[in-house]
Input
Amino acid sequence: MNTLMTRAIQALMVAVLIGAATFAMMRALPGDAAYRIAAGRYGYDNVDTAAADAVRDELGLGGPALPAFLGWLGDLLRLDFGTSLVTGQPVIEEIGHQLGASMALAGVAVLLSLILGPPLGILAGLRPGGVLDRVLLVVSTGLKAVPQFLMALILILILSVQFRLLPAAGHGEARHFILPALALALGLAAVNARIARDAMARIGAMPFYSFAQWMGLSPRQTLWRHGLRNVSVPLLTYLGLQFVTLVEGVVVVEAVFGWPGIGHALVHAIFSRDVPMVQGTALCLGLSFVLINTLIDLVTQRIDPRRAA
Amino acid sequence: MKHTLAVLAAALVTSATPVLADDTLDVVAQFEIQSAEPSTSGYIFTRMGVAETLTNADPAGVLVPGLATDWAASEDGLTWTFTLRDGGLFHDGTAVTPDAVANALTIARGKPGPLAKTPVTAIEAGEGAVVITLSEPFAALPAYLAHYSAQILAPAAYGADGAGVQVIGTGPYRITDLAPPLRLKAEAFADYWGNAPHVPNVSYAAVSRVETRALMAESGEADFVFGLDPASVARLDMSDAATVHSVAIPRTLLMKVNASHPALSEPEARQALSLSIDREGIAKAVLRYPEGATQLFPPSVGDWHDANLAPLAYDPEAARALLADLGWTAGSDGILTRDGERFALTLTTYPDRPELPLVASVLEQQFRAIGVELTINTTNSSEISSGHQDGSLDLGLIARNFGLIPTPVGTVLSDYAPTGDWGAMGWQNDEIIALARSVGRGDGGLEAQKRIAEILQTELPIIPIAWYRQTLAVAKGVEGAVIDPWERTFGLQDLKLAQ
Output
């Protein structure tokens, strides 16, 4: 209960801080917001001073900062995120649509990374310095070093163009998930595998682990009863941190695969100075960060054998 | 875990089905759908054959009937009557009445766009026709009504404030699912007034990265892929998945020049910059086009292009001589100076069209060769417009569309009569203003157009660099694809699927 209370206060502070920071940053950016919004709406063929003036009149831009920020905060307390300056649609609807698409993609990516990374890492950690361990070190370093943009293109070239197995891009069907999720998952799995390997190697070298085997448990039983639970604690903690990498990756990967997600929305909103959209998406990302860390805290509290004791 | 792998494997297998098995033609282009608002996303609805305009244009730019069957101006040129097609129906089943058309055009005129720049004073419903009143004669009006923002949607398509809330058009395709920002689906509209389309279902997907679009064409994931980069075209030409089409379009890559800048106010200085540009090299190496621009208007804009005009040349020696005559001398670092001022300029451009920053970096080298220092600022496209307005722009590298309406006169009027955000800056020519207005009124004729091109060529308020081409990859098995040089339609209703 204590954890939840702390986290709730934290969430509130995150909301106010993110709102203030994005608001200040968007205001501090050089260039006339009315022109940027007009370019976002009408495109480069049609943006001109007349369009910018029309936008300025319509939106009442250029007023003092403090009332505008307090207004946003007040609306937020009533759960009103405002409307997008570019599309004129309610921000909450746009984010709802896009956050769903991103969460689904991120969820599949994390799942895929957990299937790929930790099992290999644990196997490698059981025999530190073995062939698998050394190969895994090279492969995971390599995978982590490939930028996600490049990874995405390589995957499309191999799996879509060469072997025609999967769609190169698109959204809407299950098969559209595989490539973008894989592009994200390989980078995550590379690190997951290292964390799992290090944790396994450390735990495997501990006296209690040898003691368990000395008592007569088979290596499989030892791993199952005493290894996995211990390995999963740093792994889960790290998963919370990986969320940041994931958000970063989602922005890039969504652009490559034409995925209508929140990363895509955020980039566009920043480019066309769509302040309510930027505040809304940043807020959603910040709060999901708090939420995910809370969940991970709760789970680790339950499974950590040291606390359970 | 086994279960998940099984699902993945199943997905892998099902994905290998043929592309057109579902009778849906998949279109992919770079344009994102913002909402149902015609002034911002209307060009997607007209291109997809969902919405229509009163007038249309053939590939040569000649106006042909759309929802209006014919049109005529009164004797004094102040009243235009557009006779509407009989039997036109909106996708919600309501009739295309003069009231509905007048409503759509009145709403369009109140929003930023070409129609707002016309001397229209009133749009009213007449007997089977729409009557438009002007404050001064304006012969180009029918061409303005071909612009996508003047598309005719049913009254129910607009909210109380005039914003588009739903796309209820009259075209051969009716939207079944509109999912901004990236997707729409449409089916053939059974009650269409014209020929029924051959392909029953079409879908549109916005994919912003050109690499991805090209790969979708190559992998057969999309059937109709618009806007390809030179490298992808070269690769797709070797692929057996798609056929690449390419056509010259009325769009010119040009450099906007601030003629009130101290270093750029003399026409000779602008000529020197023009002479230092190796257009052929840029066209072949960067854009992979057969030729560079020899004048502002590309051959694709018909009689605005004057084949007899002396072409823009590449001659860095002559450029250096011109600048020396103007009193510029090279400093120790090779950069020219005059009265203690360095010949240093900032070139502003935008990444929306990926070739622009590339061309900018080539220009940086070519200008340096004649002693002009260039700093490149790649930013938002609106910086060109706002830099024009506050006078802070030196040079702007832009892609200017002469086909916003199916005649360049619209762009000429807004860019050079007298100046424009995307045209002349700090340069004004009374003759061009008079000529452009006379062409707009309809009494200028061919001679006026030629003279406009000639003045722009000698004075160089803007420096043309290349003429654009539009590219399209169409899946093998799809027949009848043609690129509309005016970029108004994808021509989906004329496509056929090979059996």
